[in-house]
Amino acid sequence: MTYALFGSAANRYDWHTPPHHYQDDHNFVLSRLPRPPGRVLDVGCGTGVFLEKAISAGFDASGLDASAEMVSIARGRVGSDRVRLERMQDLAESKVYDSIVSLSWSFNYLNSFDEIEAVLTRFFKALKPSGRLILQIAHAPNATGELNEDRELGPEGQADDVVFLYRFSQIKDNPAELRAQYVYGCKSRAELLFEEHKLATANASEVAALAGAIGFQEVEVLNSWRGEPLSDSVSPFLLAIRN
Fold this sequence. Notes:
The protein is of the alpha/beta class. It contains 6 helices and 11 strands. Helix content is 24%, strand content 31%.
């Protein structure tokens, strides 16, 4: 399934979630990668914002995404040779990458923990020995259901023209599931979109346990880009090393 936010409305993504929102997260990830010019794969690369930063930092970075619309935008940002249309479930390379990253909850769109285990195994095989894995994943146990609002510049630079509402709630019947609700609106273009995403694999501790069982070493879950242990974050980082 391709959600509208990643598909038909992908050309609006950088309006309601502009690149500067990721600055601290991306700087943290770049600081944790081996020194350039290592090969980096961005899984679920979206519009290519992190790819662009990684390439500028000297890494040999490429990306994949399951959304054709996102791939088209990312190719416009970093070049067609850097981005391919592919699901993470189909990654089949062996000992190619120095690092694999997957940010902004892309990893959580897998449908089950069995699928997560299979994809983590693919990541393990695709990494070179001592390769780094960095995932930014959803953690449903910390979701509060609070309604949040962002206001951004419009396409012509109008202040507060783009409005983005979002709420993350734990699903009561399954503590590892997260309900993500989004409302995008652009006043100058009279655009309005509501969408609800169900993330079925949103427990960082369980993902970390699976990574360790597969063979990853030094698995740790950090609360945020500041590097502290997991406490209250709904969007922690998981870091691990292929043995």
